[in-house]
Amino acid sequence: MTQSLDTIDTVEQLNALLGPVSDISIRKELPRIVPAYRAMIEASPFAILATSGPGGLDASPRGDAPGFVVVEDEQTLLLPERRGNNRADSLRNLIADPRMALLFLIPGVGETLRVNGHAKISVAPDLLARFVVREQMPKCVLVITVETAYYQCSRAIVRSQLWTAPPAAGVPSAGQINAQITGGAIDATEFDRLQPARIQATLY
Question: pTM, whole model, 2 decimals?
């Protein structure tokens, strides 16, 4: 089979394209949560959880007050699972394949933190009780064993102007999206009118 000249098919080709890895890019990857990485996790109100399972890949948002992901020790993170839409794509994946990754974002900060590891789903009462908010316990807690952790430089955040750009125009509202995908069965205006109160009532 003839190899295409327009695609990268081997690691050797990729290395030639990108060039050598810098020393700091290698040294920043650690098998534990060091104090600097702990500070980033404790300042973050938002993370993206990536998982893999029989149905494919999933990346979904997780967010709460800064420090909502608890650094139990340098090898262990605790992530409460709050109320959601009950699809539970991430949790279903973790039952089949415990491997996972987290990407932590901090408002106003260019650097992000990446953590790779594997997770168990716990419903231990004493653990759930540690994460009560507004008198509501989480559905479960992910007990994450850290395998690697490393910070990502700010280039992507700077290029995207994520923290400095004005709100994007032309983005459809939740009501408009639901009206479109249901062929008008949902009224966009009414959905959007009730959405803020609905979110607050079901936040936890």
Answer: 0.90
